Amino acid sequence: MRLYSSEGHLTEIPSRLAEVEADVQDVVEANMEALLGVRFLASEYSTGPVHAGRIDSLGLDENGAPVVVEYKRGTDPGVINQGLFYLSWLMDHRGEFEYLVRDRLGTTAAAQVLWSGPRLICVAGDYTRYDVHAVREHRRSIDLVRYRFFGRDLIGLETVAAATGRPAQGRPKRRTGPARPVCAGRERIAELAAAADEVLLGLGDGITKVQRKQYCAYQRLRNFASICPPQRAKVHVYLSLDPTEIDLVPDFTRNVRGLGHHGTGDLEVRLRTERDLERAQDLFRASYAAA
Question: What is the pTM (predicted TM-score) of this model?
Fold first, then answer.
């Protein structure tokens, strides 16, 4: 991970590790939603006298999944096992976690906790090749994130490895052929939704598909897209892009920032035909890259 200043001639800004682990934890906890897409719940959460430990950070991601975040200043071969230990504790104390969510985020959030997809996010100075291999072999959803401080006030995060905790999704075959207008039938619009699903899953490796009642989310470290159940004549896809930086096209793309809708993301894309899906793919790729 390198960062350069473009003032005058190009100059590399030296990177550094934190002085102490708490420096990383403080920055991430204060900006957890912006950095990880996770709502912060608690710091140094006690697991009681039996487990006799403290979870560095607890949170709830964009889809309602419980999240354990563990930090290490540098490289530590025990970070994954330690995080999994706390994730196991969390799964055995669901009522306690839901009470915490209710206390911090309200009853609605507590009632929608997604226990089928708990996550572990490790934030450390670096990882070994054994860490990366272990993550890819594990059945849990785990993200290994490398951090670096630059200068006095810059921090960079980089995903080193990610596991979805689910069987790997094969890359779908790209659809070809002329676009056809969408008829009013449910079957045709369902085909369009399935095609959008294939395109999103085929954007790259490490994509997690999270099914909620009102939408289906596509996630790297955080959500980059979500699809709502097909309507009568169109499919709504929401992307995690800044709509003020997009040339909006009437009846195709819309700024929904501040407007209530299912799913996550501020840019709405409306798909009615396969041609719409084709022209939406640059936006899909941009949102994937930004995540």
Answer: 0.81
